[in-house]
Here is the input.
Amino acid sequence: MSLKERLALLAPWEREAFIDAQSPETLREMARDEWWWTQRPKQVPPDGPQMVNLVLAGRGFGKTKSGAEWTVEHTLKHRFDIHGTPTEFLVVSERLSDVRLQCFEGGAGILQSLNRRGIEHRYLRSPRPMIIFPDGARIYGEPGDNSDVGRGYNACGAWLDEIAKWAYAYESWYEGIMPCLRADLKDDHPRAFVTTTPKPTSRLLREWLARDDGSVHVIRGSTFENAANLSAQVITELRTRYEGTTIGRQELYGEMLDKLDGALFSPMDIENCRVVAVPEDLVMVVVGVDPSLTDEGDEMGVVVVGIGASLDMYVLADASIRAVGREAATHVWRTATMWGADLVVYEENLGKRWMEQVFRDAYFELVKDGELEAATNPPMKGVDAKLGKRTRGEPVAMRQQQHKIKWVGRFKELEDQCCEFSSWDTRESPDRLDAFVHACRHLMTFKPRRQVVISSPWQYAVSLPLDVR
Here is the structure.
């Protein structure tokens, strides 16, 4: 508990005695809920040699508040490096809007902390959020949507928010952020404060948790540790939805799971099958499609998978898009053309059968426009969706476990759906995952063409004289 919470549990006479013993300045800080007064011990990392303070905690734990307060305190502590140069601090979240609305401007954000403390500063909202202090020290906000984030900075510290959701977390850390933590500080070194709900698909988190060299300090916490600051109705709803489930262990208690109960795919299986280049011996490429049914923001799964001469399959691209009708169908054919696909495989059921005609119309429209070859018919095949989703998914998952499905690069959204979807016995499943399964199931039926070897009796007569031959 925080000091404030502990004081509330004392007897009235004990509370009065405690308050009477405090100085006027301390009482003023208590009245404005200064961080030392409201923080719980788990929200503050200890002093030590670690470079990364990793907060793995459930929703509502107070991760944003912890990150914002740590950022402010760290920046105020290190206003200059040992050369007298004003320092730079970096704040990164998944999207720029998250950086601005949550990390900087949110109710638990950096600006709230600065204003509460009465720290003079100037805030620039665009093009990137930035806080400038009178002495020149700065806090920069950046989105974690590419691996170059952090390049060019000479930072004294960084707050990395919800890093498990970033598309390129591993690359962003090693190629951009970690190398930028290089400011030369007096009696300290640059550090990163990482706040996130864990995901089993995060390669970076798994690597950090495996460290035993003291470079990473892990703080774990649950949603319910912060119950005093959360709505009772929300707490009840979260318990009803998640308590006793595997996903609840992740979302409420911040546990790092290797594989969710009921999920068919394991993050480690995918990670162990990662390759960097498209093989040269692909003999067939298909585009798996799971059409969306409405135009209300539904996503159409579009996943490109190829098969090599060794019958290993390769995930080449995730081209999923939020679109329906002609726009969606045109996107599918252009994706197929880009990857030289031999076939488009799409889910065919009563709800989505109308898409067959839309695909045909879009194909001939692109032929007319010269984007596709004339005098050709659309290479497409409907997939019977009568089989249960688990029945369809299990053979694909088995191939993944056998390391017969390779991943050419990283496809965060698709990989998350593969590893986190566990309700295979229901009628609903994510679109990217369905498209992936459709493509793989079709390629699993692929058989190499029979090769005819023609031999001549003359090849066995190499020792005969030329005139005899």
